[in-house]
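Recall the central idea of this unit: under ordinary conditions, the amino acid sequence of a chain determines the structure it adopts. In this exercise we apply that idea directly, starting from the sequence alone.
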Amino acid sequence: MPPATPELISLRSPRVLAARRLAKRNFRGKERLFLAEGPQAVREAAGHRAGDTATLVELFATPEAAERYADIVGAVRDAGARVHLASEQVIADISTTVTPQGLVGVCRFLDTSFAEVLEARPRLVALLANVRDPGNAGTVLRCADAAGAEAVVLTDASVDVYNPKAVRASVGSLFHLPVAVGVPVEQAVDRLRAAGVRVLAADGAGDRDLDDELDKGTMGGPTAWVFGNEAWGLPEETRALTDAVVRVPIHGKAESLNLATAAAVCLYASARAQRAAGGCRSVTGN
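Accordingly, the structure predicted from this sequence is:
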């Protein structure tokens, strides 16, 4: 049986125009909606709820993609979201990728307040201070999710986490853990420390070595890692706010590590230390 005929074919359809506008930050902020593209992001969005409210509002899919990912489309309908069969031209118009995969979801904002993050007594947090590249932000979010972090916090000077490139780079992790946005870095550090969380700045010029910290057994408690701008790192005033400035050791000849790679190393180092005997996760249990 051939795929169904698309119902949305006009690029001037009000629904298409409304979805396309979400590629721009000011429209996302006004509508509190963002785009999730591709099967993985749509699958995760379909399964996410904020209380009684479904995160996924509607799905645009080509007939071919709806057939290929019938299980995802079924989950979207089960979640109560509308499904619109659309032409390839419409999907290409809405999508921000060069080669769209035929599925584009419209989702409600799902950011968490910083107060809620603190109330949950997090043991591992990634704090992005002045991170401007959306791909890096999304990748760090994915690393934090994989390492078992309880939250990601983006300061008020960081990129919009709902930027389509950031959403894609998170590969669905945006829907897995709390994300607080727009928090001044000074406030974030002060309140984390007041909550009993050790705050570490990740910096290639740090005066403490990550391997040494692990060997000394200082990494097992609740920890927040502060990651800075891709080009210039963390300013001195931000480093001065933290409990320690830690560098990832370079054992080979590489000049440095990029932001996402350094974040993965730091977060996994904390995750391993926290799961070791005497670490905060072994004390509290799972």
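DSSP finds 14 helices and 13 strands in the chain.
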